[in-house]
Amino acid sequence: MSKSKKVKALLLVTVLGTSVLTGCSSKKEAAKNDDDYAITVGYYNCDHMTAAPVGVKAGIYEDLGLKVKTLGNGKVPEAMAAGQMDAGYIGTGGLAGAIPKGSPIVVAANNHSGGSEYLIVSNDIKDPKDLIGQKIAGDPDNDTLWQTDYGPEAGIPAKSSEYDCVDMESDKDAYLAFKTGKIKAFTSCDPWGSVAEFEGTGKIIASTQYKEESTGKQYNCCSFSLNKNFIKEHPELAKKLVLAHTKSIEYIYTNPVKAAKIFAEDYNVEEEVALMTIYKKTVGEGRTLTWKITGDEYKNNLEMYKEYKKMDKVPTYDEVVDKSLIDSCGADDFDTFIKEKVDPVFPKGMSYEEWKAKAMEMDEK
Fold first, then answer.
1. What Cα–Cα distance (Å) separates residue 181 from each residue in 121, 124, 146, 175?
2. N or C: which end of the chain has fewer CB within 10 A?
3. What dihedral angle (degrees, nearest 10) is formed by the CA atoms of 306, 312, 317, 321?
4. Comparing 313 with 209, which gets the higher pLDDT?
5. With the C-alpha atoms ordered 30, 31, 34, 35, is the resulting torsion angle positive or negative?
6. pLDDT grade, residue 163 (50/70/90)?
7. What is the rounded CA–CA span in Å between residue 239 and residue 324?
8. Measured distance CA(14)–CA(73) in Å, rounded
């Protein structure tokens, strides 16, 4: 796989629903029923979303007195855009595209800045150009990463007409189609690239990072987003939910073996693949899982959407991001957390073998 990275931010290609559902209870009733309210949190099968299952299985939601039901499937972006979920881990591009159409969603915390997406091909693709004319999962015409990274890095056209393109509801579905020979390639976050290489079903031929190496300019892949009706009707629950999101990410950094076991169970992959994935997210590709909002990453995304004309109307930063909950929920400062709790144990530049040995040693204590 080429080490060169020509980097842009992710634009989620899923076409989002735009209907808006309002909350069914009054603000007074909602406040009274907070103790009984079951929060719905959506995510989909991508390593970027690992905080969701960790929040449940590590007991973080429960410790904060939250009753949370997580739903992991390929329909989360549409459900969030339609106002049918209280919260969800979704691509920032899809969220931004839905807001001008009336969707009641807003970024409440960051989730993933930096980190890779991959172009994965079957083993019989000896040269990237062999992919032309083959059946693939994806739509290069409408996927910015194809245009800025996968196509140029692999030296193949970033045009849907050059391939037999099919849609898949989730990365997991795409991998299953890939493994059974129904498609020759797909693009995905981990664990599916690592699974393909671990199981010997395919190989990664191109990848992207959500930052520009030459300038350090950062972009955002996906965010922890809340339904604005939920925030209005359950402000204290919303605040605790954002805090739980930050605590889940902290758990992944400081309890990597336990987090990997949760990941392996939830995503139905081998524990070794899960460990490889957790390593990438927390050390190998940098501290890519984060709740920190600088503002710049989202502004860079919005500029990119305008540049590539990927949506009819690009919302403003203030329409996309609401920092009030992350600033008031009691979350730790991300940079301080990394400096004090992560850097001394798992320094940047640590190899996977060194990291795994240290993580296993800590888990045995």
1. 11, 11, 22, 10
2. C
3. -130
4. 313
5. negative
6. very high
7. 9
8. 13
The one-character DSSP state at 287 is: S
DSSP 8-state secondary structure symbol assigned to residue 101: G
Tell me: the pLDDT tens digits for 281-339? 999 989 999 999 999 999 999 998 998 888 999 999 999 999 999 999 999 999 999 99
CA 42/CA 54 separation, integer angstroms: 13
Most confident of 33-37, 94-98, 325-329: 325-329
What are the backbone angles phi and psi of residue 356, rounded to the nearest 5°? -65, -45
Instruction: Give me the numbers of helices (H) and strands (E) for the chain, helices first please.
Output: 18, 10
Map residue 176 onto helix, strand or coil: helix
User: Residue 140 to residues 43, 102, 148, 330: CA-CA distances in angstroms?
Assistant: 24, 27, 10, 42
Report the length, in residues, of the chain. 365
Answer for the pair 362, 350: CB distance below 8 angstroms, yes or no: no
Location of structure tokens 């609401």: 322
Q: What is the pTM of this model?
A: 0.86
Tokens 């009030």: give the residue. 324
The long-range contacts involving 228-232, CB below 8 angstroms and separated by at least 24 positions, are 228/104, 228/105, 228/106, 229/21, 229/22, 229/23, 229/83, 229/104, 230/23, 230/39, 230/86, 230/87, 231/106, 231/108, 231/322, 231/325, 232/23, 232/27
Structure tokens at 281: 């997210």
